[in-house]
Specification:
- This protein is α+β, with helices and mostly antiparallel strands.
- About 30% of the residues lie in helices and about 15% in strands.
- It contains 23 helices and 22 strands.
- Strands 1, 2, 3, 4, 5, 6, 8, 9, 10, 11, 12 and 13 form a 12-stranded antiparallel β-sheet that branches. Strands 15, 16, 17, 18, 19 and 20 form a 6-stranded mixed β-sheet that branches. A two-stranded parallel sheet has the order 7-14.
- Helix 20 packs parallel to helix 22 and helix 21 (about 775-790) packs across helix 22 (about 800-815).
């Protein structure tokens, strides 16, 4: 071989070898000493708002912070992507929204949360001390592992997102709770939890984390939706966006109407209520400023997720767009647009930049619809919103673990509602079941379609209202009289209620009346008014603008503008006081409406067994219908009970036209009307009784051994007593009893002693000289036990002296009037037991 050829070949081999060595010299990543070059070379790169790097072999997350990323405000939002009803972490539930700031402190990066709940007027000298006693909270710190010549920082951010620093998931443990009573999450597992996905965009970044909670031996198992109760997964999306420039002018909350709002206190004001609470609302700007009606520069765009059942897409779309009617009252034309997500869309519905109506079909869900939005806590500007819709409320299956005596009944004393969690769909599920029971139709049948369509329309428009910033209005049902609600032409013109933001009883026609609309089909007068306040174009002059807004608010005394939100509702005897602010009532005369509904149920109940006879079918449909109808009976009595001892509340300001006194006791006649309803239809000897033949057919559909250790026969006495207890719990509640006495000082004509006497008559008079049937025996015993509880301060210290006096007197009356002689042994035994219980129960108080 020629020497020149040998030399050339040697050079070529050398070059190839050197090239190979050069390509192999990828900087090694030392986890204990990572550098920019090593992390970049060994990671997947996610360029965007903040460049992120995910190490390929370990999954460790690093972020590259430029100098301009520090000392600026970011908005943080936590959103659950997948979870379970046992921990209230279902898809779409939103968690924290915070204002964060990133700050370097030597070799760590601090993630600080700013306190946005206080305002200092910049023209006040006090503004110079605005930061005094309001230090930011350091939520987390992350290690700065490298810094380059440009001042950019490489920060190990993974650990921050893998714990609960930014979003608490597991609630604090109740030290007094029975560990065997309900399912609880275990401890957060560092080894099983993982960062699943990084989504980087120019204006936001999303990080999806799967949190795994570990409990090797849970005392209580979760429902079937949890695959294994020992290792429970909850997927959460962390979203970070730059805080918007402050060119959005806040509009402030007023007690006369209802928006979600961010609470901000003016620390430089002399006002008795120095509140500057910005309402949550979208930024809508007219294309034609000053025009009476104009399209917006940028409309609110909603997408229907491609999970939306095709049969319901038109209804859902119409229920969203119907809000454009209300926006015309604010001067906007086509303020809302709706599009359908293509099946091949590359964007994800969880992306904050898209406002999406999403569907799930979960085994156990506490709601049927949920409409959260993501506002800027500083200004109230809504930056994004999703609406979650649950298919399960349409199918309306009963929970398999519900006991007969409590299934679907209202709670004896429901806790106050949480205004950020909407239960409209869950409540509407019971009304949909009721409508099907009254009509005698099967889910999915042709006859069922209009009922479902109107129910879905109402649910979607309700949830859209939440995403527009609107709070609930539980006084909206007071719009029409019972007669008007039974007139289709009146309902078509005025609507079923003054707002779609209520939880309404289904407007089912009473006996002999023509059926009108079941639910509202468009925003009501209150909705138009509240949208006008929140979204109408502002005037440039602040003084003129304030006068304009006050002119709108002056309408609050009109009957159609009645308003009451979650904290006002009388679901809880211990909180709300105005019976007009209530769930599942209907009409301006709910007591008469309740009587009509009870009569309708009695009529349907007489033929219920015949309605549900079908060859080849089990008796599950009849069982469900019975529970639905009896739960509606309980609900109507529950609603009626709130009129006893109630107060009308008005929040109009002083000297406002049409204003009344802020607190007015309910009229004597109405309170007595409620007590008459209880005496005749709830506590009477023949109350709540159905045919024996029907009882013999109340059988659930068996599924394997799922009914193990559960009663297989219907607990009829327990269910009737639970219905009666729903009213007794309210009438004998310590807060209600005290309110009756207190309100006597300013106009209440129905005294505590008279109410207790009427209650005694209702429970004892009808059979005081004759036999007492088994239903009445348990009612009378339960009532006596409740009176004894009131009398004995050692058992319950919440009752005042006046309540104890009234209860003691009624116990003495009962004892003195008990006739022990009776024709049947059961009655003699019952009365002897009552007398003995009263005598022994009063000894400690003597």
């Amino acid at each position: 071989m020629p020497s020149r050829f040998k030399i050339g070949l040697l050079c070529l081999v050398t070059l190839i070898s050197l090239a190979g060595c050069e390509s192999a010299e990828v900087p090694a990543l030392d986890p204990d000493n990572p550098t920019f070059d090593a992390v970049i070379a060994n990671s997947d790169h996610f360029p965007g708002l903040i460049d992120s790097y995910r190490v390929k072999d370990s999954g460790a997350l690093y972020m590259r912070f430029k100098p301009e990323h520090l000392e600026r405000d970011y908005l943080y939002f936590g959103t659950f992507l997948d979870g379970n009803s046992a921990t209230n972490t279902q898809r779409g539930i939103f968690g924290s929204h915070r204002v964060l700031r990133l700050r370097r402190d030597f070799q760590v990066l601090e993630v600080q949360q700013l306190n946005t709940r206080f305002f200092f007027d910049p023209d006040s000298a006090l503004a110079r001390s605005a930061e005094a006693n309001l230090p930011p909270t350091v939520l987390a710190v992350a290690d700065i592992v490298d810094e380059n010549d440009a001042g950019e920082l490489l920060v190990h951010m993974g650990p921050i997102f893998l714990d609960e620093s930014l979003q608490q998931i597991k609630p604090a443990a109740d030290p007094e709770a029975d560990p065997k009573a309900e399912f609880v999450l275990g401890e957060l597992s560092e080894t099983r939890s993982s960062l699943q996905q990084v989504k980087a965009y120019p204006e936001n970044i999303d990080l999806i984390v799967n949190y795994v909670y570990e409990n090797p031996a849970p005392l209580v198992r979760a429902d079937a939706a949890v695959t294994d109760s020992r290792f429970v997964s909850v997927r959460l999306q962390h979203t970070l966006i730059p805080a918007p420039e402050e060119d959005f002018k806040p509009r402030f909350a007023d007690a006369r109407l209802g928006y979600f709002a961010e609470q901000v206190t003016d620390m430089t004001s002399y006002a008795v209520a120095p509140w500057r609470d910005p309402i949550d609302r979208w930024k809508l700007v007219k294309k034609e400023p000053g025009a009476a009606l104009s399209e917006p520069v940028e409309p609110i765009l909603f997408w229907l997720e491609n999970t939306t059942p095709e049969a319901y897409r038109d209804t859902v779309r119409e229920a969203v767009l119907v809000w454009n009617q209300a926006f015309e009252s604010a001067g906007f034309k086509d303020a809302i647009e709706v599009r359908i997500q293509p099946d091949d869309a590359e964007w994800d519905a969880g992306d904050l930049r898209y406002n999406v109506l999403r569907w799930t079909s979960s085994s156990e869900s506490t709601w049927g619809g949920y409409g959260p939005s993501w506002p800027d806590p500083r200004t109230g500007q809504i930056l994004g919103a999703d609406i979650m819709l649950e298919f399960g409320w349409i199918t309306s299956h009963l929970r398999s673990d519900q006991l007969f005596e409590q299934a679907m009944l209202p709670a004896l004393d429901a806790a106050p509602l949480r205004s950020r969690l909407c239960l409209a769909g869950d409540h509407m599920k019971s009304q949909l079941m009721l409508g099907r029971s009254l009509l005698g139709v099967k889910p999915g049948s042709a006859e069922d379609s209009e009922l479902v369509r109107q129910s879905l329309y109402d649910l979607v428009s309700h949830e859209v209202g939440h995403t527009l910033g609107l709070n609930h209005n539980f006084r909206a049902s007071q719009l029409l009289t019972p007669e008007q609600l039974a007139q289709p032409e009146v309902v078509a013109e005025q609507g079923v209620a003054s707002s779609v933001m209520d939880y309404l009883a289904i407007n089912f026609a009473p006996l002999g009346a023509e059926q009108a609309a079941y639910y509202p089909t468009s925003p009501g007068p209150y909705d138009h008014w509240v949208i006008e306040y929140g979204y109408s174009e502002a005037l440039a002059d602040p003084v003129a603008e304030e006068a304009r807004l006050q002119a709108i608010l002056q309408r609050s005394t009109e009957a159609e503008m009645g308003f009451g939100l979650d904290a006002d509702v009388m679901a809880s005897s211990g909180s709300g006081i105005d019976p007009r602010v209530m769930l599942f009532d209907q009409s301006s005369d709910p007591l008469r409406y309740a009587s009509d509904r009870l009569a309708l149920i009695d009529s349907v109940g007489a033929s219920l067994l015949q309605r549900y006879q079908a060859a080849g079918e089990s008796w599950q449909a009849l069982y469900d219908a019975y529970l639905s109808l009896t739960s509606e009976q309980a609900r109507q009595f529950w609603v009626a009970s709130r009129w006893v001892g109630g107060l009308y509340v008005e929040r109009a300001v002083q000297e406002q036209p049409g204003a009344t006194e802020p607190l007015r006791p309910v009229e004597l006649e109405r309170q007595q009307q409620a007590m008459t309803l209880f005496r005749e239809q709830l506590f009477a000897p023949d109350a709540l009784r159905w045919q024996a033949e029907l009882y013999r057919h109340l059988q659930r559909q068996r599924r394997g051994n799922n009914h193990w250790n559960q009663p297989q026969d219907p607990q009829l006495h327990a269910r009737v007593l639970a219905t009666q207890q729903g009213v007794l719990a309210h009438l004998l509640h310590p807060v209600v009893q005290t309110r009756i006495s207190d309100s006597a000082l300013y106009g209440n004509e129905y005294s505590l002693s008279q109410m207790m006497s009427d209650l005694n008559v209702a429970i004892f008079a009808s059979d005081s000289r004759g036999p007492v049937n088994s239903m009445r025996q348990q009612l009378q015993r339960d009532y006596v036990e409740r009176l004894l509880l009131i009398v004995d301060p050692a058992q319950n210290a919440d009752y005042d002296y006046l309540s104890r006096n009234a209860a003691l007197y009624q116990l003495q009356q009962i004892s003195s009037q008990l006739v022990l002689a009776a024709d049947d042994t059961s009655t003699r035994a019952h009365r002897a037991a009552l007398k003995h219980r009263i005598e022994t129960g009063l000894k400690p108080a003597a």
